[in-house]
């Protein structure tokens, strides 16, 4: 008799999960206990036992409108009645065309071409390939290396991983296959401050000495996410834009985590008033409903590639331009832009600053910093994630720390009361660990 997969106890499917599923950054030899989620609505995750958690992570920063949003549900259901998928090679459809136009309209000029892909890591792979193929196409095939920032994170696929911080990304495990790129020291000046000569000295030197082999600089503008949750000033980006122009090196912005309002601007590069040559977006693009990303570039890049030897851009994912995901992305962008999103992000930032301030008084805390809808508590030593996460769950919140960092990126729809409770319980759980 076949197994009745639909009607099993929580204990049974948790055991299947433990026996067969390999979760991110986990060991199958000593797998961490999984928290069983059965539904989600608004900012709450409902567990199998009926208890609820306030989600402080927005499902890795993607569910900006919360869960089960009626507008996004309606967009998904309407698209399902037409088609859930169709190949993008030789075919197109209204959802993708509309999404491309929307992204061009809301991102800074001169980004006019949109390549739609499956995930953030793939969007970064596409950006890297665009930069390399561009230089090859215009007769400079020697420009094949990238320059990235230390403490950066750009994804887990090989091309993207090669541009992540080489220490935290454990490049030595894959050093025989990873391309060797260059890494500049991350800027140390705080958000809102002008870049210092010391901040710019290292990256300027690397550009001066290696520009003939450098295809592009790649970085996360203003907010370094999974590599350290660090904030730095927009002036650094402005200065770097000028340096890239001076040394004839492309500039790639990875806005996968920062795009769609998270930093207080629609896109983080707006803090500097500049535009990259290539930009990656993802995560919040569909409001956390489906995996979708996009890589935007200028006409200069697009024409340079297509006028070269290949005549085409050499990439084409099977699920590129998926109609279901594109339809939800259009609805998510509409939902965001129709709201007072700037005022809302300011409200969340104020709530985070107030709610997390008490953490600075704990002996175990190194620093507390907030920007937009991002709140970070940096500890002096790495946390015990298993025990700390259990404390968070006992207190009715979902926070997933890593290393020394205990942070939150809540959904934009979070109420003041839930935000205050989230912050209060974060601080209380840390205090209980001392």
Automatic annotation (TrEMBL):
CDD domains: OAT_like. The modification N6-(pyridoxal phosphate)lysine is found at residue 283. It catalyses: (8S)-8-amino-7-oxononanoate + S-adenosyl-L-methionine = S-adenosyl-4-methylsulfanyl-2-oxobutanoate + (7R,8S)-7,8-diammoniononanoate. This is Adenosylmethionine-8-amino-7-oxononanoate aminotransferase. Homodimer. The gene is bioA. The lineage of its organism: Bacteria, Pseudomonadati, Pseudomonadota, Gammaproteobacteria, Cellvibrionales. The record marks 25 as: Participates in the substrate recognition with KAPA and in a stacking interaction with the adenine ring of SAM. GO terms for cellular component: cytoplasm.
